[in-house]
Design brief:
Elements lengths: L2 H4 L4 H6 L23 H26 L1 H48 L1 H6 L3 H53 L9 H34 L1 H8 L20 E11 L2 E11 L4 E6 L5 H8 L7 E6 L2 E2 L5 H6 L1 E4 L10 H6 L7 H10 L3 H5 L18 H15 L3 E5 L7 H15 L3 E5 L11 E6 L2 E6 L1 H7 L2 H17 L1 H5 L1
Parallel strand pairs: 3-8, 3-9, 6-7, 7-8
Antiparallel strand pairs: 1-2, 1-4, 4-5, 9-10
Helix pairs in contact: 3-4, 3-7, 4-6, 4-7, 6-7, 12-14, 16-17
Length: 500
């Protein structure tokens, strides 16, 4: 048995291990390279010649030998291809399961590594290890079943080929000894038949494996096809123009929004922030404050109403231009696993080192950075885990200062800072907000008493609005929140309460 005849056996197994595409003789076999699967030229110069070769072989055996030889070759090829297609279709579910479990295994590993601090906090390293080992075992079982089904496919293919070979060889031998209906074959005819049929089955093997490879490629690309099927939630309308902010007026007109239709987040919210003024959003957790910031940045589109900047509906302008005009200091700071200079410069990637340092000074973190061993070249780790919460927030503030946007959104920008640093940064924020339209989300009311107007939110609606003193005089929800925070501070500072 020559190398060509047995070359397809184990091809998929080697491919699944990402091994070299070689035949059993150890030489590269360009016919089984997966990169050729979708090449039209490859189809033209490899598949078409095989079909022509099969047709010529059938005609040759019928004319030069006997119609029985042509039938043997024809039925062998048809049976081979039919069984190959049936078994390949049958075993696709096993490869699909293997791919799904492989994705789950990788997701489990990435999730555990990204949250390694939480794993350490709760001493759950052994639990995570067990979860990962369980995912690996499931994947290995699915891989074993997939490879076993491949061997079944190869076994059936070789049985069909062997049966056709044996039947034709016995018939040819009978013709040499006894003749076939007046046709007396010679030993040379016997050798010719064996050589021809042996050379014919090699391309047939490749054709069957080519079909299997195409099926496997489509299964492997199913996740990518699923991504293509996902519709973009927020997209620019056709012909959307870039946003040009001249004044920076922000207006919410009867805005309603929900993540889940069963739980409304915002209900008919309306307010207007005049150019250059600072408005604050306060309220209990879950009242919709951060959602307003996300909608203004157009991470989501509103369900009802509209949001205007300088009289232009932000749903009608290009998202990129909108986001370039707005600077955000979020509540949850996420940083790149790079140095501090890189993370600050991300606010404006064309900024010089001097501009980066000035932004750090304005955010009251420059001196702190200089105490690090590598100063601005210090790596912050994944998601900035090597920095404290206050340091991460100051880097985010420096990033926004460097961006120098027309509109500033502060979502609990100083929530992780100590009192002294908070006061220093408040003066920096006042400078960056000077002359810019600013929307501040805050829980600590002491940080927003300077706001031109404070909007008090409750259950997705604006229930009170006014300046700090106006709301205190109103004696409503804001005054109650202010009194509660003052009481909690006095209790924390009272030595007798502390001793208790």
């Amino acid at each position: 048995m020559n190398c060509r005849q047995i070359s397809p056996i184990g091809v998929e197994y080697r491919q699944s291990l990402r091994g070299p595409s070689t035949d059993p003789c150890g030489t590269p076999n360009p016919r089984i390279l997966s990169s050729d699967v979708a090449d039209p030229i490859h189809l033209l110069f490899n598949v078409l010649p095989i079909l022509v070769d099969i047709s010529i072989a059938i005609v040759f055996f019928v004319s030069a030998f006997n119609y029985l030889f042509g039938l043997i070759v024809f039925f062998s090829i048809v049976t081979y291809m039919a069984l190959s297609m049936i078994i390949t279709e049958w075993r696709t579910k096993y490869r699909r399961d293997m791919n799904r479990l492989d994705n789950e295994k990788n997701a489990k590993a990435v999730d555990a590594l990204l949250n390694f601090e939480t794993v350490k906090y709760y001493g759950a390293a052994d639990f995570e290890k067990g979860q990962y080992m369980e995912a690996i075992n499931k994947y290995q079982k699915a891989e074993f079943v997939s490879i076993l089904s491949l061997h079944l496919l190869n076994l059936v293919q070789n049985i069909v080929i062997a049966c056709g070979m044996v039947t034709g060889t016995l018939l040819c031998g009978w013709g040499v000894v006894y003749g076939l209906k007046g046709l007396h074959l010679t030993v040379g005819d016997y050798v010719l038949f064996g050589t021809y049929i042996n050379q014919l089955y090699g391309p047939i093997h490749w054709l069957g494996n080519y079909y299997r490879m195409i099926q496997a490629a489509f299964i492997d690309m199913e996740n990518m096809f699923d991504l293509f099927g996902v519709t973009q939630e927020v997209k620019d309308i056709e012909g959307a123009q870039p946003l040009e902010i001249t004044n920076g007026e922000i207006e919410f007109k009867n805005v309603s929004f929900h993540y889940d239709s069963r739980k409304p987040i915002l209900k008919n919210v309306s307010f207007c922030v005049p150019p250059g003024e600072t408005y604050a959003l306060v309220g209990h957790s879950g009242s919709g404050k951060s959602t307003i910031v996300r909608l203004l940045f157009r991470l989501y589109d509103v369900m009802e109403g509209c949001i205007l900047i300088d009289g232009k509906d932000i749903s009608q302008v290009q998202q990129e231009s909108l986001r370039k005009s707005i600077g955000v200091v979020p509540q949850d700071i996420v940083m790149f696993n790079n140095n501090i200079k890189y993370n600050i410069r991300y606010g404006r990637v064309t900024a010089t080192d001097e501009e980066v340092e000035k932004a750090a000074e304005a955010a009251d973190i420059h001196d702190r950075i200089l105490t690090f061993p590598q100063k601005y070249e210090t790596l912050v780790g994944e998601r900035g885990l090597k920095l404290s919460g206050g340091e991460k927030q100051r880097v985010a503030i420096a990033r926004t200062l460097l961006k120098s946007p027309a509109v500033v959104l502060l979502d609990e920008a100083t929530s992780a800072l100590d009192t002294k640093t908070e006061r220093n940064i408040q003066s920096s924020l006042l400078r960056v907000c000077e002359g810019r339209t600013t929307l501040v989300v805050a829980h600590r009311l002491s940080t927003i008493i300077h706001a031109h107007q404070i909007l008090v939110m409750e259950e997705g609606t604006v229930v009170e609005r006014g300046s700090h003193m106006e709301l205190l005089d109103l004696g409503g929800i804001y005054a109650d929140m202010w009194q509660q925070q003052l009481t909690s501070k006095e209790t924390a500072l009272d030595p007798e309460t502390t001793d208790q």
